[in-house]
Design brief:
Layout lengths: L7 E5 L7 E5 L10 E4 L24 H10 L3 E7 L10 H17 L6 E5 L14 H10 L7 E4 L14 E5 L11 E3 L2 H17 L2
Helix pairs in contact: 1-4
């Protein structure tokens, strides 16, 4: 039987010392589709600091509902995450891949598909991928032919929205506390609430207002 190629680890943007690692889940895609760039820790799951063990992974309340709502709008879901725990020696790429497989399987059971997961394993090594740098965003956009002008970025830190300063990506900062975001950035308390803002955008465009 042929090998299952539905999930594979690919290194993109390689140079001699610079690599952006990603998990390509080979989801079906449309040419120039729109997407949501999602941070991981603190956006999708509880941020306990360097989460890599399965027993430490916990979805935030209604995060899966938010992801499903975004998906139902026809948006591809792309996870963009800094993982300096690899450079710090706290866990390995294999540990991270195991956790991401676990997360993807849980999401699949809930009817949520992930277009791709991109992670930066660096800390002090010069690279173009560690947020707030935007290498991972551009790699995802190039590989999946994403229309950035109709895409979103959602995360709990301003660095998660760094692509919004370079491209016409709409940003939503997750914060339960009153905050003053950068111009053009909206705020929501959690991923579910952010998804409802995106639904509102779609409804506004549909009504022509």
């Amino acid at each position: 039987m042929p090998a299952d190629r539905s999930k594979r680890v690919v290194l993109v943007g390689q140079s001699r010392r610079r690599r952006v690692a990603r998990v390509d889940l080979m989801s079906q895609q449309k040419p120039f589709q729109s997407a949501v760039f999602l941070d991981r820790d603190g956006t999708i799951n509880v941020d306990r600091g360097y989460v890599y063990r399965l027993e430490d992974f916990e979805f935030l309340p209604r995060a899966i509902d938010g992801m499903r709502t975004l998906q139902d709008l026809g948006l591809g879901l792309v996870i963009i995450t800094n993982q300096s725990g690899i450079a710090r020696g706290l866990y390995s790429r294999v540990d991270l891949a195991r956790l991401h497989d676990y997360m993807v399987q849980k999401l699949a059971k809930a009817g949520v598909s992930i277009l791709g997961i991109y992670f930066c394993p660096h800390l002090k090594e010069p690279c173009n991928c560690r947020k707030p740098k935007t290498g991972m965003f551009h790699s995802a956009a190039d590989e999946h032919r994403l229309d950035l002008s109709s895409s979103y970025a959602i995360g709990d830190k301003t660095r998660d929205l760094s692509i919004c300063a370079e491209q016409p990506v709409k940003g939503i900062l997750l914060s339960k506390e009153p905050t003053t975001p950068e111009p053009g950035i909206r705020c929501a308390p959690d991923l579910w609430s952010a998804a409802k803002l995106v639904v509102g955008d779609f409804q506004t465009r549909a009504s022509g207002s």
